[in-house]
Amino acid sequence: MTVGGAGQLGSLGALASRDTPAARLDARVKVLATLAFVAVVASFGRHDLLRLAPLALFPLVLAALGDVPLRALLRPLALAAPFALGVAAFEPLLDRAPAFTVGGVAISGGAVGMATILAKFALSLSAALLLVATTGFDHVCVALRRLGAPRALVAQLLLTHRYLFVLAAEAGRSLRAHALRAPGRRRPTLRVAGTMLGALLVRALARAERIHAAMKCRGFEGELPLVRRGRPGRPDALFAAATAALLLVARAVDVPARLGAGLAGGLP
Amino acid sequence: MHMSDALLSPAVGGALWMVTAGAVAVSARRVERAPDARRVPLMGVLGAFVFAAQTVNFSIPGTGSSGHLMGGLLLAALLGPAAGFLVLASVVCVQALFFADGGLLALGANVLNMGAASCFVAYPLVFRPLAGAKPTGARLVVASTLGGVTSLVLGALGVVAQTTASGVSTLPAGPFLALLVPIHAVIGAVEGLATAALLRVLWRARPELAPASAPSRAARMFTVAIAAAAVLVAGLGARLASALPDGLEWSVARTAGAAPAEPAPVPLPAVAGVGITLAAVALLFALLRALRRRARGA
What is the DSSP pairing of strand A98-102 with strand B264-265? Predict the structure, then answer.
């Protein structure tokens, strides 16, 4: 993770503060729909690349309904890609048996497996990013609490998210100060980093005490009050039904094969 | 080191979600049972601190590469296992949602690999006994280093076990282990050294924050229970996964690898079908975008 990585975090959450059809949907419905989507994506086998195609509908419709620019999704995906790519890259080396032939050229099972892993990676991670970009982290947390997550965890999530930017900016200032004082060195040594981070930690703890005092001034007695708004309405039911239908159809029916067969049957 | 959604089967991912949910629930109850309003903002700020600390890359001595703090051991040392685990769980959660690290299905696996390994195993079973009541100088360094190595190697073992049990990747467990474990032992040693450096600075500046009591017997029992549950559930998940058609197909395909089956021709109609599907999805996307643009303009 980089300082730039922490910067884009704000912009992803800021997208959710706009009034869009996707933002108006009930947060609990979106959380559950996203989890179901991710599980269905994962349920496909190693060579089911083609069957994943219909599932692209979910993230793209959510992005369109939420006015989320695709750029906002592609950047974090590209930053997170190395690990998935690292494992997927072994597929073509390990599984060289040709699985398919096209015009006399053989395609190995590994190539299909690698493409499948990368497609799953893109689908499930864009769904997670879209949940934040269309809901906002605070509402995701409230939804988690209403779905039964422990109070201590929800308070923890909210506060971690709240102070992320503050402390990341502080770490950024420390790094700039180091760069100015040690111009020949790209990174601090372990010893210097220990002191830098130690100072950051001491300041963070002092900050926690100030925050606690400020919270007490505002009546805090151990539990964060959460604004719970609304109950699911008709758009939520529609969204839930559409998601359920998509997931069931994609899971039960080989849509591309059916479409292709229909096309071949329709042609003379 | 994040386990990825793309490598997990729903059975294994779901089973580990359950274990993690149980561990989070128990930890949350422990934290809530000792109500200390001061600790709520403290835990939140420490979670944010772990993020901020991860932006500080330092050079690793003797190599050209760089590393950063993970924070599991540090959180356990500062807050105790239960609260440390909750903080780390929330950090992993925010990473999955904002940075596409791992993913939502893999959340359970990642919280276990990173949080449980450091807070419930490395901290109470390695760090505390070695560091003793008054950790100073060399003792602190040894305890942190071994604690870091233990938590990172356990995490790497978790990644390999989960990947193998899921059967999404072809990567055989042996070479995968040989690849990941030595790297993570080194990363863990660096993690331990960084943790020791940080704790030393902190305890020098704020001596009152240094630990006072030894872990209770109940805490140790809880650790053992979590570890047993993870092994049990992962084993069950793997059994379940291999009973499902996908897993079965995979193991058949693997055993049949010696005598490769005749390659099938590419299912051209299905490829055409993918083209149609994606074109329809793209069309719908463009249509919705245009509608939204008009709605915004109006």
Answer: parallel
State pLDDT tens for residues B51-102: 888 777 777 665 556 667 788 899 998 888 999 999 999 998 888 888 777 7
Biggest CA pair distance of chain A: 79
Interface with A, mutate which of B277, B283, B284, B293 (most A CBs under 10 A): B277
Nearest to A226 by CA among A147, A153, A132, A143: A143
Please list every residue in chain A whose beta carbon sits closer than 8 Å to the beta carbon of residue B68.
1
Q: What is the pTM of this model?
A: 0.80
A75–chain B Cβ distance below 8 A for any pair: no
Task: Tell me B172's DSSP state.
Answer: -
Q: Are residues A93 and A190 in the same domain?
A: no
Out of B209, B261, B273, whose CB is closest to A256? B273
Q: How many other CB atoms are found less than 10 A from the CB of residue B152?
A: 31
For B99-120, how does the pLDDT look when each residue is reduced to its tens digit (9 = 90+)? 777 788 889 999 999 899 899 9
Residue B241 makes CB contacts below 8 A (sequence gap 6+) with B9, B11, B12, B165, B166, B167, B247
Which of A102, A161, A201 is the closest to B49 by Cβ?
A201
Asked if the structure places residue A201 within a domain, the reply is yes
Domain count, chain A: 2
